[in-house]
Amino acid sequence: MIRWSEDGTDHTALWRSEAGLPPPKRVLVADDTLNADQAYRLACEGTALLWRGDFHNGRQLLQALARRIERKQPKGKGKASKDTAPASLTQAFHLHRQAQGQRARILAMLLIAVDADYRVNLRRAPDFSAACTEAYGPAGEPFVVSLRELQALVGAHEWRKKGVNIPALGATIHPHYGVFSPLRGEYLELLAQAPLPASDLAFDIGTGSGVIAALLTKRGLAKVVATDLDPRALACARENLERLGLAARVELQQRDLFPEGRAPLVVCNPPWVPAKPSSPIEYAVFDPDSRMLRGFLAGLKDHLAPGGEGWLIISDLAEHLGLRSRQQLLDWIAAAGLEVAARHDIRPSHGKTRDADDPLHAARAAEVTSLWRLRAA
């Protein structure tokens, strides 16, 4: 619960935070009379601002806070002095994550109260009911949430309506809130081109939006068993597969990694970077201590049919950042009783590979995404 005082009365409400942030201990009611400099100072000091002014003005205040944060952070290769420049890409990565976390904490200090029916009682506030229902389920009781998270709900709602075009699939995937969107298509190109070891059965480990399961069935797999721990991901995959007319050939299971049994093809696209996520959506990108990667490799041999292949789809970004070495990956493969039958590589084409102002540009520019075809040794 979150607590605050307003008009001489103490109030409490349910606190929502998808990032798992605790409710702020200090809450000040704020309106259009509060200027951006004051708001920034209070937010940096840990005081949350429960917005009671015009909704559009609140949104502009959030943008003003973001601009003040950016002015505090040097950008580009030439902006940092020799004394402040990171000594390595590993340090640059950790500093970047630290700055991202600090930015998220400050921006999360601007709060919005939402009624039990998902209405926001502020002047010029839009209708959030559809976006909130998709993310949180049916309306229940009033709550307080950061304006930034509320905007993320709306963004996810629009992505869900519009969808993401997947050229390798020849169709559109509609990601749900909290489920990673398959915006990077190069790994799907690898999946579409690699020679299939069999056409009767495949396992898709960590299905997410269901895009890999859909692509495998499009390639002719008679049946795919797709697993995920996240109920949101399973609901998202189910909806996408039904929309594509593929649901009858895909069995969805809520599991941590593998289903029971063996298959001639087992595919996994684990998070690529061994680091701590700061929100649920980041679990699709960051894998603490390479837990999912190591779990997939360790259990793969016991779930491969004789002569079968395990397809590991992973980027070498972690290697360029100094977070995991190529030798470490090869050692894990060997320790699991596996050998590399082949590897297919492709370079990513997303915008950050060309953004010299990105603090991690050197690593992104060198990045290669690979499909490792693994067999029992």
Automatic annotation (TrEMBL):
GO molecular function: methyltransferase activity
Keywords: Methyltransferase, S-adenosyl-L-methionine, Transferase
Superkingdom of the source species: Bacteria
GO biological process, one term: methylation
InterPro entries: DNA_methylase_N6_adenine_CS, N5-glutamine_MTase, SAM-dependent_MTases_sf, Small_mtfrase_dom
Pfam families per the UniProt record, alphabetical: MTS (PF05175)
Domain Methyltransferase small: 174-315
Keyword S-adenosyl-L-methionine part of the UniProt annotation: yes
PANTHER family: HEMK METHYLTRANSFERASE, MTRF1L RELEASE FACTOR GLUTAMINE METHYLTRANSFERASE
Protein name: Methylase of polypeptide subunit release factors
Lineage: Bacteria, Pseudomonadati, Pseudomonadota, Betaproteobacteria, Rhodocyclales
